[in-house]
Amino acid sequence: MLKDYLARTVRATVTDENDNYVFAQVDGHTFRIAKKELKKVPRPGAVISGFAYQNEHHQLVMTKQVPKVGRDQYAWGTVVGSHGDLGVFVDIGLPDKDIAISSDDLPLLRHLWPQKGSRLLLALTVDDKDRIWGKLATDDLIRQVSVQADKRMMNREVTATVYRLKRAGTLVLTSDYYLGFIYHGEREQEPYLGQVVQARVIDVHADGRLNLSLQPRAYEAISEDAQMILAALKQNQGHLPYTDKSTPAAIKAYFGISKGQFKRSVGHLMKAGLVQQREGELILNEQQ
């Protein structure tokens, strides 16, 4: 059957050629291979090998450009587009063929489908109609290829790819193959499947899994006035003789802002756990 030869490297016997292609047969199926891929044109009867597939014109093709993705062989592919309700198409490196991933294997919500440029970890499968499909890596397989993180990863920035969407949050695999989870409270909006995100490590589990956040660090989320107050504290050993009880004139003279602006900024800093007010002083918390 033809499906037995597709999406894998095969050996075929050369039967003919034209200006652009060499033709070779295996089990009665004729494949074409571009002459520009060959160092030397083989004679009829010679055996050549290549990766076998049907191109976008439904022609049987062999190529020397063997993709990393194969049957039960997983590798990363790049999403190049989607088509109606069919699914998304992924570039795995074939000259004239993108691989479809069925909508049946994608999130129910269309806005969470992989977008152009997304990365998906997939292998290939062939159905009874000789169509090649991509199949996404399972959770078990991703756990098998992952590595354990240690406590030194705490608070680091990581690049990660979304591989599964859950009600409680988002499962990701980092560029260093650490498993990560982003709780729904640690993101502004839900990432889509295959999205590459920049995240921060907020916890490291005993089994090496990471808890991640897409939220900005506290000091990144505060206003310019608050950042200025933080800078002043750091320049003065973490103590300043100003609080929300200080006079407007004293605050204006030192910080160059109104007392209202000062109170709002200090309030945000306190809420973020960065500072405290005690005994007539504004104090930088020790963890900072």
From TrEMBL:
Residues 143-216 form the Conserved virulence factor B third S1 domain. Residues 74-135 form the Conserved virulence factor B second S1 domain. Residues 227-284 form the Conserved virulence factor B-like winged helix domain. It comes from the Bacteria. Pfam families: CvfB_1st (PF21191), CvfB_2nd (PF21543), S1_2 (PF13509), WHD_CvfB (PF17783). Residues 9-63 form the Conserved virulence factor B first S1 domain. InterPro entries: CvfB_fam, CvfB_S1_2nd, CvfB_S1_3rd, CvfB_S1_st, CvfB_WH, NA-bd_OB-fold, WH-like_DNA-bd_sf. Belongs to the CvfB family. This is DNA-binding protein.
